[in-house]
Specification:
Layout: H1 2-14, H2 23-47, H3 52-65, E1 71-76, E2 79-86, E3 89-97, E4 107-108, E5 113-114, E6 118-120, H4 123-128, H5 133-157
Antiparallel strand pairs: 1-2, 2-3, 3-6, 4-5
Helix pairs in contact: 3-5
Length: about 160
């Protein structure tokens, strides 16, 4: 099947639907088609594919940016607790730090974390195994705290007169 499809592609797309009679032109056309196919393969590997999981991670990242006013955050050593008050109900999510040095391809590029960096008790993480908005929220808070401490250290080392 694949060979027949490639023959049809060579004949109609590359050769314009004509019968190739000369061997040198046929070989030239064949080499050009192979080079084109290899180049498109390299481009697709380099570009990467937006999988549904990466799309979900990006969606959760955007959702975490809107959580600031609705959620509270508590940090204890290796554990983070995110709480949400809704009416008379209080929802709590426990986030534990995991392998921060993992370099797997399933990651949020903005937060620079992968799926193994944290674990959460929410349904999104436990069942769908996606970096949930709570993990993104924690990472954004960590990044903010790190930038504030770096700024404080710089001002202590370089006081302005």
């Amino acid at each position: 099947m694949k060979l027949e499809r490639w023959h049809r592609q060579l004949k109609y797309e590359e050769a314009g639907g004509t019968v190739m009679k000369r061997l040198d032109k046929t070989i030239s056309l064949l080499l050009a088609a192979i080079a084109k196919k290899l180049l498109s393969r390299v481009i697709s590997i380099e570009r990467g594919k937006l999988t549904s999981r990466v799309a979900l991670i990006r969606k959760r990242h955007k959702g975490s940016e809107e959580m600031d006013s609705k959620y509270d955050y508590i940090q204890c050593d290796e554990k983070h607790i995110v709480t949400k008050s809704e009416g008379s109900s209080i929802f709590t999510y426990d986030i534990l730090e995991g392998n921060r040095s993992c370099r797997c391809p399933i990651r949020c590029e903005e937060c620079n974390i992968c799926i193994h960096s944290f674990s959460c008790t929410c349904v999104d993480y436990c069942i769908r195994f996606v970096i949930c908005k709570h993990i993104h929220f924690i990472q954004q808070k960590n990044n903010l705290m790190n930038s504030v401490t770096e700024d404080l250290q710089q001002t202590q080392h370089n006081p302005t007169v």
